[in-house]
């Protein structure tokens, strides 16, 4: 469907506000910037900011919906005969190769992490995002497995898969923060990802490995 003029203008306004806010947060820290300052810098009113973003935290976590939806998408779009574990490994290796933001491997991710670490409000928000990601993946797994309400399998598998990606990304982030170059981080991360998901596959190989219709 072609985007209409009104929709395009709304999208562009939202993106401009978000970009301005991100720049201010990166320069001064999340807690040191007010919504009124974001509005002035973006040349809009405070009410306009809140029309697009319900809270100040939403200005920073503007990709939250995409982040939460990513794990179920990886599960749904796996290849015929591919297990859930292999699909998540493939997705993670692709993020390494492309330095994609979805796993916090993009340039500047260390600055993003520091802003979060320095703000209790953002730390709590990111923790909630992790919970929502895990719950979304667990629901998708439960649907595929036709799991009952008392079946812990979907929740356990979701926790293992997302816990693995999170630990890998935290390792990469620590190396970035220490000043390591990507040419050193990338091969280490690929090796560790292969090892970590290989360990998972030994225990979870039957999950999602049936034929895709």
Topology:
Blueprint: H1 5-28, H2 35-42, H3 46-52, H4 56-60, H5 64-76, H6 84-98, H7 109-117, H8 120-145, H9 153-177, H10 182-204
What does this structure look like?
InterPro entries: Homeodomain-like_sf, HTH-type_TetR-like_transc_reg, HTH_TetR, MftR_C. There is one protein chain. The chain has helices spanning 5-28, 35-42, 46-52, 56-60, 64-76, 84-98, 109-117, 120-145, 153-177, 182-204. With 213 residues, the protein is an all-alpha fold. The chain is globular and about 55 Å long.
Mind summarizing the main beta sheet? none
Residue windows where pLDDT falls under 50 for at least 5 positions: none
Taking Cα atoms only, what radius of gyration do you get, to the nearest Å? 19 Å
Q: Structural class of the helices, strands and pairings?
A: mainly alpha
InterPro entries: Homeodomain-like_sf, HTH-type_TetR-like_transc_reg, HTH_TetR, MftR_C
Organism: Nonomuraea salmonea
Domain HTH tetR-type: 11-71
Protein name: TetR/AcrR family transcriptional regulator
Main traits of this protein?
globular; Tetracycline Repressor, domain 2; 213 residues; mainly alpha; Arc Repressor Mutant, subunit A
Brief summary of the model shown:
Helices cover 73% and strands 0% of the residues. It has helices at 5-28, 35-42, 46-52, 56-60, 64-76, 84-98, 109-117, 120-145, 153-177, 182-204. The model has no long low-confidence stretch (mean pLDDT 91).
């Amino acid at each position: 469907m072609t985007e209409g003029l009104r929709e395009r203008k709304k999208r562009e306004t939202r993106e401009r506000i978000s970009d301005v806010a991100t720049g201010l947060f990166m320069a001064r820290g999340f807690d040191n910037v007010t919504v009124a300052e974001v509005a002035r810098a973006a040349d809009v009113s405070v009410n306009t900011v809140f029309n697009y973003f319900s809270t100040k935290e939403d200005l920073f976590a503007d990709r939250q919906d995409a982040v939460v939806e990513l794990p179920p998408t990886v599960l749904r779009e796996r290849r015929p005969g591919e297990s859930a574990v292999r699909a998540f490994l493939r997705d993670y290796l692709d993020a390494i190769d492309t330095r994609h933001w979805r796993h916090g491997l993009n340039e500047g991710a260390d600055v993003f992490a520091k802003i979060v670490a320095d703000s209790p409000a953002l730390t709590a928000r990111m923790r909630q995002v992790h919970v929502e990601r895990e719950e979304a993946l667990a629901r998708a797994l439960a649907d595929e497995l036709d799991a009952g309400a008392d079946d812990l399998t979907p929740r356990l598998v979701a926790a293992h898969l997302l816990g693995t990606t999170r630990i890998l990304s935290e390792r990469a982030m620590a190396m970035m923060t220490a000043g390591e170059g990507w040419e050193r981080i990338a091969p280490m991360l690929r090796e560790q990802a292969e090892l970590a998901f290989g360990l998972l596959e030994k225990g979870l190989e039957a999950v999602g490995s049936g034929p895709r219709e």
